[in-house]
Every structure is written in structure tokens, then in C-alpha cells.
Amino acid sequence: MGRGVPELVLELNGSTWTLDPSRPYTLGRDPQGDLTIDDARVSWRHATISWGGGSWFIEDHGSTNGTYVQGQRIQRAEIGPGSAVRLGNATDGPRLNL
Predict the structure, then answer these.
(1) What pTM was computed for the model?
(2) Which stretches of the chain are DSSP H helices?
């Protein structure tokens, strides 16, 4: 790559993942997903985080309860260090710390 694409470090429920820009990551209740989130408000395949050639994005997969960035329900949004991302509920859903 050589450009020094920034990895994204994501913290959830006390676990930490370092996301590599070379592939997308699936979030949801599905145990086969990349980041399994055991919360009733989170859909089976809830959202995907991926590198979009300039920044990181989170994309909602038509989840029942939504994906929220900075308190707004989104379909696809740019995210980065400091973004407040919640799944399933804007105020108290599982929070991703980037």
C-alpha cells in the first residue's frame, strides 16, 4: 500500500478490535460475523464498517432499530476517531468507541 492507510481501533463492551483497511467488517448478532454484538436491539447482520478510499464508513444493512452516528440515524456515514456510533438505539444502544 505504502500510503499508510490508518487502521481503525474500535472498542465495544470492553473488547478492542483493530480494523484493517483491506477488508470490510460485519457487525451484528450473527456469531459468524466479524464483530458479534449480543444485544437484542442489534440485528443479525446489522452494519458493515469499511475503508472507503479516503476515510472509514459505517453502512447500515436495513437493521430493524438503526445505526446512529452523532445521534442521527444513518444509512451510510463517514466515521473516524472520536465518532459516537450506537447500534439499535441513539441514546443507550451498544456504543462503538473509535
Answers:
(1) 0.91
(2) none
